[in-house]
Amino acid sequence: MKFFIWIFTQKNRMQKSISFFISFLSLGAFSQTTKDISNVTRYEYELSAKTSKTNLENISTTVCALDILGDSSIFFDTANYERKKIRKNPKKDLSPEENGMLGLSFRPVFNWFVVSQGKENRFYSDINEDYKYFVVEPKKDIEWVIDSKVNKWNIYSVQQAKTTYGGREWTVLFTQDIPLHSGPYMFNNLPGMVVKAWDSEEHYVFELLSSKKAELDWKVLSFNDHIENDRKRIDKAIRLNNNKTYLQIFDEKGIKIGENGRAGFNIKIGDGKNDIYIL
């Protein structure tokens, strides 16, 4: 069954997404060098992730960006951003094939991104290439148990906090040495800046690397092609999609696979996946 049957009204949701994008750009704290580019303070995190349940020895790494724009932020995988950037703005001195190869040279660990503004987080992702969504979640929904003890982590004085979110038990280190209430993933409602976060199995570990001034190209990020939905409906849709085989998807799209190759695609999409958000 098509996922869009769960959408309340696509046109209205699209308009809400566009209006959010416009309001996001219009904040007075933004310093834009052109119509489409914003100057930001970028905090870079290294992510080490075990994305396959069937091969937990394999660790994928990437650099994530937390871009701060006034009292708002956006968190994303820089490899995914660079890949999208090549697709939207191909290098003029390269052929289409060379641009394609350059884009594939960037290997993101994840393709979701989180926009934080006011009292809300917006989680943007996709179920498949045909359905992109975002979920709005109040920041206060993530409740923390904070340890009052202060320790040192690198150059920062930090406290430890714990929470359960998205099917995982998380521990973070946050500091008041950086005057921000922000951090990686959805962790931005603590009295300080999150410098490290890891789940209880250490399948996902974020560590702050550095900060710098950077430019964020908004043309690369797509807000208006994501449709708002609620978490329960999205989780149900993801389960349905994960239970399909690649062969079923090909058949639905009318893609013909020769008999000799069909067995190799008769594997469920969700088999072995170890996403950051556990259903």
Automatic annotation (TrEMBL):
Entries under InterPro entries matching the protein: GLPGLI
Signal peptide per UniProt: 1-31
Keywords: Signal
Name of the protein in question: GLPGLI family protein
NCBIfam families the UniProt entry points to: GLPGLI (TIGR01200)
Organism: Myroides marinus
